Structure formats: structure tokens, C-alpha cells
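During the second year of the project, the team shifted from modelling isolated chains to modelling whole assemblies. The rationale, set out in the original proposal, was that interfaces cannot be judged from single-chain predictions alone. As a representative example for this report, we include one of the complexes processed in the last quarter. Its constituent sequences, exactly as entered into the pipeline, are reproduced here:
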Amino acid sequence: MDDVRHTARGESWVDAAAGTVSREAFVSDDVFRLELDRIFHRLWIFLAHDSEIPSPGDYVVRSMGSVPVLVVRGSDGELRVLLNSCRHRGTKLCRGEAGNARHFVCPYHGWSYALDGRLITTSYDGHLPPEMDKADWGLVPVPRLETYRGLVFAAWDPGVPALSDYLGDIAWYLDTLFWRSPQGMEVLAPPHRWRVRANWKIGALNFIGDSQHVRTTHAGPITLDRVRSEKDGFYVTGGDSFQVVTDRGHGCTLTYLAPGMKEENYLTHPPALGAAYAETLGADQLAMLHHLRVFVGNVFPNFSFIESQVALGEKAVIVRQWQPLGGTEMEVLSWVLAEREADDGYKQRALRHGFHNFGAAGVFEQDDLEIWASATQASDNPIAQRYPYSFHSSLPFDRSPCEQGRWPGTTYRPSNTEVAQFAFMRRWQAAMGSPDRA
Amino acid sequence: MNGEAPAKASDDAAFVEVLRFLHREAALLDGRDYAAWLGLLTGDIRYVVTARVSRPAEQGPLDYAIVDEDADTLGLRVRQISDPKLTWAENPATLTRRFVSNLEVEDAGAPNHHVAHSNLLVYRQRGTAPDGDFYAGRRRDVLRRVDGSLRIADRLVRLDHNVLFDGSLSVIL
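Output from the structure prediction step:
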């Protein structure tokens, strides 16, 4: 609780002692603008998976808060993140969302840049004064860029800690999704993209640990889940299931199969990939994955992941960027990944089943989004904002983590409390209150 | 061929039969008569909806699937949206109006097999929002005659959208 800081103007939206959060945090455009300054234009932001841009000249256009950037692979094979805005008069170099380029030519006056951002020509170099050095007028590079297990992150604050330090203990869990085979994961298709009239933090909270919404929001797909209906109690929030909170507000929730189930009914590892997992992961990580049914989490601020069993012994890994557009609107980017070693049939099934559940038309997604939008709409007025949101079901648990210390981070049981969600909110408040805290 | 227009047009009789079929199908979906709609599908139906990547024109169009169902998963999707206890996105039901137009039917060389291309515009209104939204795209349907009646064996809906609006697609296109 001691990590809650007040902003320069004294605002505090999170009441750590009471277990509540002001609704203003979930609708206000003023809060959104402060989030851009304190969080999105400062901290490590997830942008892409490196398998999206495998060849020299490949690029995707993404956003870091309100900042449009190009994620591009240079002729030297190196990844770069550049401001997608001409240094002359600001035009976007790339106006689509993806492509391949040999160089970037501005459509306005013809300034041309190399893939590494270097200014090649203004088209009128002979008119330039001698004191204008073209070397100073390349595309603006993001000062910090690192990848972790293929995940591309960048930050505008040159002072942020190394990405591995920033990720801290959550990296151990990320490894079990993104580095569990020697060749690693690959993106199976371009990301689904859709707008939601809801605050971006609702998505982050939903993924860091919101087991309480599953039975109500997702009554449809849960009821229709054929595997589960054959064997009621297919997975549980008690027993082995747990939540994890790590430093800097990252976290995840691991939901395990009910004990005593027949092994053949819930193969949780793809049999064909079992050997690859054993090659890459440690014994502890393999044990963690054993009988794991649903694995979901969030890296602060807006990078989420969920692994879901799509069929017996087959899993899809879904990755999310919750891209804020204002206090009451976001754009969601959603990718499906699988192990590079998997055969084409497995990848196709993972992709289809992955977005059948979680995507622009996902059967889980459609009910989430309707509910998130209604929460945002009903909170976007001064009367409702007199009454904060409840995170009370974190309080009886967040001072009593599991003792066993088997896994990295701080672990909590049962898995269906609001501990991880409230940890996210406290970390958010701390980041909003202090520009120096990365 | 880019999949938007047939190489050789069918005769008028086939055209009229397909047009009647698509109009009746749209009425069933607008009326949320999903039981009857499922009866229009073959047992090996493939139902795919794609969106478009916005990229340089010289690199050509790139579509990617946002829905890709077989009979089994399509059945789950339809059960969810047709049972009020199993859906929030469609309870209260969204209001839809489908406009199927610009039909072109290919001469597929077999009387029991048609390939139909049509434009689709779906107006959709959710909740009390004063303004509705539109999905627009081009359909390519493979229709097969089973027990004397046309059925949909394969549907591809290529949406003219990059970023989808307002939440998740929860209706059949």
C-alpha cells in the first residue's frame, strides 16, 4: 500500500486502505492525458512480435500512447522504432498499417529516409544552408528498444531500466509462453484490430486476474464448452490455482484442472511439442504448466496474454495491446501465436480456435466488450463518479501471500480474488503520481 | 480474377433461383430465425469472414480471417447468440437489416452447384445508441443442391474494414 503516490496536483484515485478506485480514472480525458505523459510516453510499451517483420524492409505501424511509430527491420537485419512523422512538416511516412519498403519517402515534399531513419535527401538539398546538417534531421528514433523472447518493447524515457529489470519476475512466466521451444513462437496472422468504447485499463484488469467475471460474463461459451460439460468441475479457482503479483504492477492468474480428473480428458500439453518444452524450460516451469487450464496476465501497462486450451492437447497463445484513445475509448490489437516447431495443421487450428474465442468476433470477446462499454458509459457522469469502484475482495488476501514461495513473484490463493487487479491499480496510481518512477 | 467477379455468367434461371435464396436467407437472419438458417447450410459448411490489412497499393490486398468456422464451431456461435441466457452481446438483441445486392452468379457448369458473388451491407443498431453502424463487404458463396434445395456449402465474406468499430462482431454476415 505504501506505493500509492499523489500527483503534483494531489490527485489520488486509488484508496488503498478502503479497497476502492475512483470512477474518474476510468472515464476522464484529463486522466487519459496524464496517463500519456506519465505512462505511455515514458515506460516500456509492447509494440510487436519480431516474427511480424521477418525480412529487411518489413515494417508495421503501431502506437505508443498517442505517438505513431514505425517498427521496421533494417537492411542490416536490426529492428528499429522510429517516429512515423516526417521531420520536414510532419507527414506520416507510412499511412497504412504494414508493408515492405526499401526506403521511406515523404509524399509531401519528397524527403527520403533510409530504413535506419537516416535522411538521404530533402529533394532540394542544394537549397539548404551550410549550417543545416542532414545527419541531425533523420527520423526520430525511440531512445530505448529491446526485445524479450521475440516481444518488441520500446520506451520514450531514456532513463527507464533495462527491459529485463523492468519485467522482473514476470519474465519467468513469459518464458513459459514465449520461449518454451528452441525456436520460440511466431505470430500466425496479422493482428485483429477493433475499437471499444471503454477505458483501456478495463482490458488490463480483465487479463491480470478477473476470475470472478468468467461465470457471469461468459456463461455462453462456458456452458457450451463441450469438454467441460462432459466433466463438470473441469477447472477450479481453488486447489492449485493461484495469482501472481510482481514488482512494477505486472501479474498473472493460473487456473488449474480440478484434481482427480482423468488425464486423457484434459491433455494440457501438445504431445508433439512436449519434447521441445523439456528442451527449453526448467523443471519448475514444466511443473507450473502441468495441468494448467487457463493462463492469463498483464505486463504494465497495456500488454496482455492469455493461453487457452482450444482442443484436447492443443493451445493457442493470444497477445493483446490495449491502445488508449481517450478516457472512454480504446483500440484493441490481438495476435494469435504458436510454436514455430508446430506443424501447419496445428498452427491453423490454434489460429482458428484462438480467434473463435478471443478476437474481433470472439465468442468470449463479444460479451466482454458489451459489458465494458456499458460500465464506461454509465460511469461517465459526475453523479456516478461520487461512488467509487469496489476492489474489496483484494483486501482480505493481499497481506497474506502463499508461504511456499515455489514460484517467482508474490503468489496468492485462491485465484479468484481481486489481489492482482488492485495491485495493478496501486502501481498505476504510483506511476501517475511520480514521473520518476519507472 | 480477384474473387469479386465471375468469369462467365450463369443463365437467368440460375440467377433468379440464387437471388431468391439469398433474399430469403437475409430475411431469416434479420428475423433471428437461426434454427431455420442452420437448415440452409450443408453439413460441411465453411464460413469465413475476413478483414483487410491497410498497406501500400503496389503490395496488393492482404485479407486475414476474423471468423473461420466449420459446422461444429459455427453451431456453437449460433447457439450462443440465439439463447438469451448465453449472450450479453445479443441480449437485448441488436437490430439488423441486411441488403444483398450486385449479385453475379457464375456458370459453374453444373445445375446443382452455383457460385454467387454479392455485395452485403448490414445495418446494425445496438442498445439505445441513436446511430447505427454498418458492415460492408463482398460475399462469395458456394451453393449446392441437397435433397432438391439449395444450401450454403461455403461462404467467404470479405469485409471492407481494417479496424472494426464498436466492439466485437456478434452477428452472422
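Residues 394 and 418 of chain A are 4 Å apart (CA to CA). Chain A has twelve helices and 23 strands.
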